[in-house]
Amino acid sequence: MSDTPRPPRRDALRNRERVLDAATELVRRDGEKVPMAAIAEHAGVGVGTLYRHFATREELLGALVHRSFGIALDNARAAAAHPGPALAGIRGFFLATLRDRERFVLPLHGGPAVFTAATRERQAGVRTALRELLERGTTAGELRADLTPEDLIVAASLLSRPLLPTGDWDGLARRQIDLLLGGLGPEGPAEVTG
Amino acid sequence: MSDTPRPPRRDALRNRERVLDAATELVRRDGEKVPMAAIAEHAGVGVGTLYRHFATREELLGALVHRSFGIALDNARAAAAHPGPALAGIRGFFLATLRDRERFVLPLHGGPAVFTAATRERQAGVRTALRELLERGTTAGELRADLTPEDLIVAASLLSRPLLPTGDWDGLARRQIDLLLGGLGPEGPAEVTG
DNA sequence: GTTTAAGCGGACGAATTCGTCCGCAACGAC
DNA sequence: GTCGTTGCGGACGAATTCGTCCGCTTAAAC
């Protein structure tokens, strides 16, 4: 029944990775409409190879997004498994996102959000892990009770791309993390009227 | 000496605005490489008209960015002029950014940050107004002392573009504002180790 | 080594996008 | 109204990008 159709050749796997890496870099730098030929060249392969591995631009972009959610899922699960206080886990998740930012290609920019079923599963997995983490913190009285995974995801996505041309994105991003962590406590955010 | 070369015709001004509005919408939706012809069509003008007003794509993008900083400058100055506590002014700045988000086209996405000298002036103006606001809050003991305008700008830029495909970006964004405001107090952010 | 099928690369025609140019339309001064 | 000038629109050739196709290369099974 299971006719194993033979594993792909070694160079094929290697080239697939090269294409993904090159595409990640160029899509982040030049946007999702960067010419396919540019991606192929930067990867050191011919366009034929590129199109063989990813028949359309959509498919390539989908693979980038899928890969990104794989990284995010790893980070979210690691954070949830963190033995210390939930706040430390959340901080770890943010810092991991910042660390991995150059590998993320997320549909942040109005591009066609290319989500396969498998990607959606990973996305749901991220939510689940973060929800678990938040519940632990809420139960322990460490966190305000109304937080949702989306709150963390939005904040994290801010970190994944330098928004200012200043050189020190790392510094700015870390400060944003600290500022945000101050608002997560059980007393809720400062009351402000006006 | 001053040979006033005659003001532009009424239809020219109207068409210029139409192009800017159309470009704002399409660049936000499809990215900065959206075809010029698409912008012209969406604006209801011919490509000739588009290229007459903006000789190159760069020039058009530059105008969009310039316009965006004009809005941001108005908002920053209004916030600085706010009579109440500084925290309320900051909140007002964030909410105004959220309100105006569809009019912002900022060089957030690796695109060629098209900054003219005039744009840089507006940008500096935003910084100045926000610095003033922060100093007022710090002097009053309302805010931690180490905040910079960039901290506010980064946070505000997060609001200017929906990052998640969920429908309720407004709700998520408002919550981010509240969370962040909790970290601005003089006691500094919660201490977290791990 | 030999063999064979998977994989590679880049030339090429099709399709898209660019940016100019010029005959026609309409604003506004009189 | 008339007239001069500014501004409009879109057709068009040039340039870029797309995606396929096929002869050559190379991994890997024996």
Question: Averaged pLDDT of chain A, please?
Answer: 89
Write down the domain tally of chain A. Answer: 2
Main beta-sheet annotation of chain A: none
Query: What level of helicity do the residues of chain A show?
Result: 55-70%
Just give the CATH class of the largest domain in chain A.
Mainly Alpha
Q: From the coordinates shown, what is the CATH architecture of the largest domain in chain A? A: Orthogonal Bundle
Sequence of secondary-structure elements of chain A: HHHHHHHH
* β-strand amount of chain A: under 5%
What's the assembly state of these chains?
Answer: homodimer
Computed CA radius of gyration of chain A, to the nearest angstrom:
20 Å
What would you note in describing this structure?
Two copies of one chain form a homodimer. By secondary structure, chain A is mostly helical. Chain A has two domains: 9-55, Homeodomain-like (Arc Repressor Mutant, subunit A); 58-182, Orthogonal Bundle (Tetracycline Repressor, domain 2). In chain A, 63% of the residues lie in helices and 0% in strands. The first copy, chain A, is elongated. The model of chain A has no long low-confidence stretch (mean pLDDT 89). Chains A and B meet through helix 1, helix 5, helix 7 and helix 8 of A and helix 1, helix 5, helix 7 and helix 8 of B. The first copy, chain A, binds a DNA duplex (30 and 30 nucleotides) through helix 1, helix 2 and helix 3.
